[in-house]
Amino acid sequence: MANLKDILYKVKLISISGATDIAIDAIQFDSRIVGAGDVFVAIKGTQVDGHEFISKAVTQGAVAVVCEDIPIDIHPEVTYVQTDNSAKALGIMADNYFGHPSEKLKLVAVTGTNGKTTTVSLLHQLFMNLGYHTGMISTVQNQINNKVIPATHTTPDALQLNSLLKKMVESGCNIVFMEASSHAIEQERMAGLKLAGAVFTNITHEHLDYHKTFDNYIKAKKKLFDDLPSDAFALVNVDDKRGMVMLQNCKASKYTYSLKMMAIYKAKVLSNSLQGLELNIEQKDVWFRQIGYFNAYNLLASYATAHLLEEESEEILMNLSQIELKNGRFEQVPNNAGITAVVDYAHTPDALENVLQTIDNIRTGNEQVLTVVGCGGNRDTTKRPLMAEIACRFSDRVILTSDNPRFEEPEAIIADMQKGVPVSQVRKVTNLPDRKEAIKLACSFAQKGDIILVAGKGHETYQEIKGERSHFDDKEIVSEMLNLIHNK
């Protein structure tokens, strides 16, 4: 129970009709779950406009409505609050309602097209190892210390997010690392939160189905840095040409990291193999369990973040070097067939190229590289031919398949991907919409010493088809198929 006047604190108000000194049971933005005593926040979403459900929310017992457009027919016993941005108001209201949880811990947000999940996971495990009670909000899962809380979105909605942060505070968390997706930033899900810092990993071709243009996508990421307070830090990868863009007009203390350019935090890759990475950081040679140049960036970002949070350099490096993640990012699948099998979440052109370049850098040239890859349905279609072209460029065999086709036909998605297959490489490509059969085919083609990459789903344990989610785990299928073939 809270007072409406209190939970409207810091919300930009245009007009108010009715009393604000009233008790509020809960905040809702989904009219289907509004109950007696609730305040309903009407948000103009990409698919649905909450303003169309104001009367329904009032009928169900809402005592107050927060909206951008006051309805013509108003209920005399309901308070109507007009604001210029309902989504932003929801974030601020949620922060007030749950007692400003982000002010009671250090909250660091990581944004970028690739590397968010790994960087957040590394930081969470690192600070656990350093003795902190640590929270994590990520694509893979949310965690309070070692307790796992299932994740439904990269960044939860404002109510879920503040509720989760409150639970983290109550559990004694000192620090929380969270992924900040471009959707969440643009939709103001993080409005009202106090950040101790923000990290930018990179930005490449992704989510244009939502943002429409690459410029809009960049602006969404930049907003995270524009909104940082002056006592926070902003850490950006300057090997990405948009890294410095993120720092323009940013009030926070500015820091940079790089493998190539001049930067405050620098690292050099000394060796890169299937066993791990050796990096030189702060004039110290350190071996890490992660694989690939892309992970060198994730490790350096994690090191720099921990250092900015005032941890000792040697302690950071010692603990970071001991971390082994199993999160569907360049995760090797054990098998008895003598085949290197890798499952990776790569679902953007840049991520797929990073993984395949890593494989290319560590292969001897005597083995085949077999890639199984698809593209998600009802998502950015322009990346589909790019993904296929990249797979062909780095692989000896390519199998185009399904990857959460959702409400699209897999054959139509594969047809889009086929447009990127060079004429000279058509013979190396097989189309097989059934993902399990595609993985099985790759495993049957592979010989001892070969490398299989199954890209796109990584940590996911489902396949989404026609609105239904069924169990599907790439790692399980790869292991089953390889061991089955080997034991014949």
Automatic annotation (TrEMBL):
Protein name: UDP-N-acetylmuramoyl-L-alanyl-D-glutamate--2,6-diaminopimelate ligase
Compartment annotation: Cytoplasm
GO CC terms in record: cytoplasm
Record PTM: Carboxylation is probably crucial for Mg(2+) binding and, consequently, for the gamma-phosphate positioning of ATP.
Stated role: Catalyzes the addition of meso-diaminopimelic acid to the nucleotide precursor UDP-N-acetylmuramoyl-L-alanyl-D-glutamate (UMAG) in the biosynthesis of bacterial cell-wall peptidoglycan.
Lineage, uppermost ranks: Bacteria, Pseudomonadati, Bacteroidota, Cytophagia, Cytophagales
Gene Ontology biological process terms, A to Z: cell division; cell wall organization; peptidoglycan biosynthetic process; regulation of cell shape
Motif segment (Meso-diaminopimelate recognition motif): 403-406
UniProt: ATP binding residues: 112-118
Top-level taxon in the UniProt lineage: Bacteria
Catalysed reactions, semicolon-separated: UDP-N-acetyl-alpha-D-muramoyl-L-alanyl-D-glutamate + meso-2,6-diaminopimelate + ATP = UDP-N-acetyl-alpha-D-muramoyl-L-alanyl-gamma-D-glutamyl-meso-2,6-diaminopimelate + ADP + phosphate + H(+)
Residues covered by the Mur ligase N-terminal catalytic domain: 24-90
Cofactor dependence: Mg(2+)
InterPro entries per record: Mur-like_cat_sf (IPR036565), Mur_ligase_C (IPR004101), Mur_ligase_C_dom_sf (IPR036615), Mur_ligase_cen (IPR013221), Mur_ligase_N (IPR000713), MurE/MurF_N (IPR035911), UDP-N-AcMur-Glu-dNH2Pim_ligase (IPR005761)
Recorded coiled-coil stretches: none
